[in-house]
Design brief:
The protein is α/β, with parallel strands linked by helices and about 270 residues long. It has one domain: Isochorismatase-like (Rossmann fold, 3-Layer(aba) Sandwich). Helix content is about 25%, strand content about 20%. It has eight helices and eleven strands. A six-stranded parallel beta sheet has the order 8-7-6-9-10-11, sandwiched between helices. Strand 1 and strand 2 form a beta hairpin. Helix 3 packs parallel to helix 8 and helix 6 packs parallel to helix 7. The longest helix is centred in the C-terminal third of the chain and has 15 residues. The protein is globular, with a radius of gyration of 21 Å. The termini are far apart.
């Protein structure tokens, strides 16, 4: 017997339309996962220009959160000058807006430490405690007041002000947030599952610190088989400049490509 023709309006989408999904009807489950036509964009890059499919891209913005970037945050309390990081706010905002306008997912990858710190090993906590004796992951900062009685105040703690994205880069409603608790955003997090469900193959990176969390997450993305692209003027670090230059060299030499936000925005804007 033949199968009854199913009208397009009878199908229900289960999953991500541009990524991994089923289509369901009362009589069948369609697992074919039809792929949309490539949306190719050529972008100037180092060491070679690249052509990417916007339909398989995502932007990951790393650690642009109050404890690292804002007055009253953890870094500020340690005497770190957080004002230089503001120079990457506008490039990140422009790049995110341009990509979001072409239906490219924006993922905000932030530290979000459990209140009990039960999954943090001593060696992880030691490195973030200023040689073991200072204020570290999940600790309270003296003098910091909670924004409300119900909110936690620990350093980089889930739900705390310090773990939130800075107001200047407020995520859009459709953006995705992923918490991490290691230098790499792939370790013991859902980041890989999220990217695969979205059908992503190419990942652009922005955020801080270029030589720490950005580079470690980019390297792990490369090891997982993703195309990895660092947006140079959307990344910064509090480390000496030679650390940033070494990061750019290593990305171009070993792990992928570097681009500028101006080139990304202009080429995306020209795409249909």
């Amino acid at each position: 017997m033949g199968t009854k023709q199913i009208e397009a309006s009878d199908w229900k989408l289960l999953g991500v339309e541009q990524g991994d999904h089923y289509r369901l009807s009362e009589s069948a489950v369609d697992m074919t996962r039809p792929s949309p036509a490539p949306r190719a964009v050529e972008i100037p890059a180092q060491p070679q220009n690249i052509i990417v499919d916007l339909g398989k891209c995502a932007l990951i913005v790393v650690d642009m959160q109050n404890d690292f970037c804002s007055k009253g945050g953890w870094f500020d309390s340690l005497g770190v000058d957080v004002s230089p990081v503001r120079k990457i706010y506008d490039p990140i905002r422009r790049t995110a807006e341009a990509l979001r306008g072409r239906a490219v997912p924006i993922i905000w990858l932030n530290w979000g430490v459990r209140s009990d710190r039960a999954n943090l090993s001593p060696v992880t906590r030691y490195a973030f405690s200023r040689v073991g004796c200072g204020v570290g992951l999940g600790d309270s900062i003296k003098g910091r007041s909670p924004t409300s009685e119900a909110k936690p105040t620990g350093v980089l703690q889930q739900g705390a002000w310090g773990a939130a994205v800075v107001d200047e880069l407020a995520p859009a409603g459709e953006d995705i947030r992923v918490d991490k608790h290691r230098i790499s955003g792939f370790w013991d997090t859902p980041l890989d599952s999220v990217l695969r469900n979205l059908g992503v193959k190419t990942v652009l990176f922005a955020g801080i610190n270029a030589d720490h969390c950005v580079l470690a997450t980019l390297m792990d993305a490369n090891f997982h088989g993703y195309d990895t692209i660092l947006i140079e003027d959307c990344t910064a670090t509090g480390s000496p400049d030679f650390c940033l230059q070494a990061t750019l060299h290593n990305v171009r030499f070993c792990f992928g490509f570097t681009v500028t936000s101006a080139d990304v925005v202009s080429r995306v804007a020209r795409s249909s």
